[in-house]
Amino acid sequence: MRPAYAAAAALVALTACSSTGTATPGSAPVAQTAQINVAGTGTSSALGQVVSSNLGQSSAVEAAPDAVFAALVDAYQQLGIPMSMKDDARRRAGNIGLKARRQVGKIPMRFAVDCGEDISGPKADSYEVTLSIESSVVAGDAAGTSTLGTVVSGSGRPVSVSGSDVNCSSKGEIERSIQKAVRAKLGLR
Fold it and tell me: Checking CA distances to 173, which of 3, 9, 132, 140 falls within 20 to 30 Å?
């Protein structure tokens, strides 16, 4: 294997191992073809497929979609997550561009997102984090059932010094907390 291909293959292997999301239960990973340009040759080569998981979490709920959506709106309030968008017709709710420090609602930021670490610990503890939290409810296959899904993404930046934004990947705690609060409101386990 030529050095350029070996380095690219190693990079693809590392990328494939560093997934930033949680696969949704019952969903298959998304396959993507990795293409590299070989420096100085004017050619490119396909290295095969890199598998990345779908972002977010979803779960089946044994309740009608309208009831699940009402419980979802209540869950945001209960968790202290302000809603900047609510679409009753499409059963979508969330907050796009929520700026937070140290915690999002009642959830400590270090458990909500991973923005990396430095010598003082998780950067999420000290960064200003901008989050996108989107939840939706869709009718399930069987009558009286629904699927509740939540996707969280974000970026963070240092507060006390200048610096660039860094990607912050969800640790799944916001999604789990929303699902748990919805199920509790509906009297489900």
Answer: 140
